[in-house]
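Q: What structure does this chain adopt?
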Amino acid sequence: MTTTVPLGEVVEIRGGGTPSRSVSDYWDGPIPWATVKDFKSTVLEKTQESITTEGVANSATNVVPAGAVIVPTRMAVGKAAINSIDLAINQDLKALIPKECVDRRFLLHFLLSKAAFLEGRAQGATVKGIKLDLLRSLEFPRLGIEEQRLIASVLDKADGIQRKRADFCEAIHAFLKSAYVHIVGHLNPSHGDWAPFTIEALAEQRKGAIRSGPFGSALRHGEFVDEGIAVLGIDNAVQNKFAWAERRFITPSKYQELRRYKVFPDDVIITIMGTTGRSAVVPEDIPEAITTKHLATITCNKELIHPEVLSFAIHSDPLIIRQIKSFNKGAIMDGLNLGTIRRLEISLPPMDEQLRFVAALRKARAIYAASETPDGSGEDLFQSLSQRAFRGEL
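A:
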């Protein structure tokens, strides 16, 4: 097991500040001035604002030489970046200047590996932050500089895999968004000829075709068991495709009380609490299952609309998102509920166009699935390597 040393013993920590906004001579000078808004990646190479030498002299800010590791201690706790230019920082940031025994990229990866830990200890009623003492007390691995560089090199490569996979995922999603608007959305030349339908009209015309899960005391968390009838929640739809994540079950006897909340193959489930506005189609091989109150469920009239088209529309159609904003006074997804969902309106494309989009959707998903490695996604690989590195297992 690798021995450790408190982080404060191997880095110099500098704070920052903000020059007075009322003194124009302090602003728009030659010195880049960083805030949490500038944390777009793990490299700080430019800032949105700049200050003058007078601004530095008359405030608590510090000019940090290139090559430090900058971390937010308020608002964006858990992020970290190396500054590639000399810059000043505000009071929400701390600059960690490594001593000769510390490799800066190893330090960067170490701090990023502590993101969840630091976020979990952030405090504050509105804006959460961490204390400087917590940062100083982090247990930093006591490794030789060459070993640090080797580990940093491995993690850099793993991070590159993660980023390429994220770019690939984004490219797939961009393609699907484009395919949607051109095939079944508003950029199809025939879009103006399609009749508008509310989602309520596109559901099966029976009671409970649009429903949410059991509320209040009807289903309590303490009633979940290790096996039985599955209960679907936000995690099953949050990726905008159906995925098994946390497994929740209720007993068969409890299920008899809640049968009206049953989900069926090809139902569309929509997140209406927590991370709202995500949607997915329930797969054909779904076992007996109900949903929690965090999901809305739609059983579609499949003679009118394909469930995959409806699901994609919910989370990505710009016209649907505009309607949700208008219903909720400007909020994109806040307050999504059954009433809002029922009123959403779609210009209904012919079924042959719907099937063309579904074919493109399935092909894109197959390409994405084929790119997955046995180890899982690039993020899984990176997180696994990172945690092993800082436990001394690499």
